[in-house]
Amino acid sequence: MKIAVGSDHAGFEYKTKLLALLAYLGHEGVDYGAYSDEATDYPAWIRPVAQAVACGEADRGIVLGGSGNGEAIVANRIAGVRCTLCWNAESARYARQHNDSNVLSMGQRLVSWVTACEVVDVWLSTEFEGGRHQRRISQIDD
User: What does DSSP assign to residue 4?
Assistant: First the structure.
């Protein structure tokens, strides 16, 4: 899969590591910035990730910040994006199974690196269940 990845300064360390992890897992990670840990405004880096997913330029996206909350809010402002804030493997599994999440948000200050790796692995490998969940996704999109 082609995965767009973006962060602000507070998620920069994990973004850099996740790009390497994605390559190791056989995915193409595309870096949308930020490009350092200098303070920056997250919408500038997160919106392009969400737009890339929404227009089909990327299969999925991962956005990172200090908490992941603001990043999820920005991503979800783009039509067609279903960004879920995940903090453990179980939340990532439900995000994919029930919500067909196409953008993952995490907070570097709140999730350990080991947990972040587990979240990404589960989120990338879990399929959407469809069925009653598809009906709900359709209602969101309407």
Answer: E
Map out the domains of the chain as residue ranges. Answer: 2-141
Q: Supply φ then ψ for residue 110, to 5 degrees.
A: -115, -15
Q: Which two tokens stand for residue 122?
A: 């589960």
* Rg of the chain (C-alpha set): 14
CA 72 to the chain's CA centroid: 8
Please confirm, yes or no, whether 71 is among the known catalytic residues: yes
pTM above 0.70, yes or no: yes
pLDDT digits (tens, 9 = 90+) for 31-50: 999 999 999 999 999 999 99
C-alpha span between 8 and 23 (Å, rounded) = 21
14 phi and psi angles, rounded to 5 deg = -65, -35
Quickly tell me which residue has 């956005």 as its tokens: 63
98 a catalytic residue: yes
* Domain 2-141: top CATH class: alpha beta
Region of 86 (left: φ > 0; alpha: ψ -120 to 50; beta: rest) is beta
Tokens of 74: 């920005």
Which member of 98, 118, 129, 133 is catalytic? 98
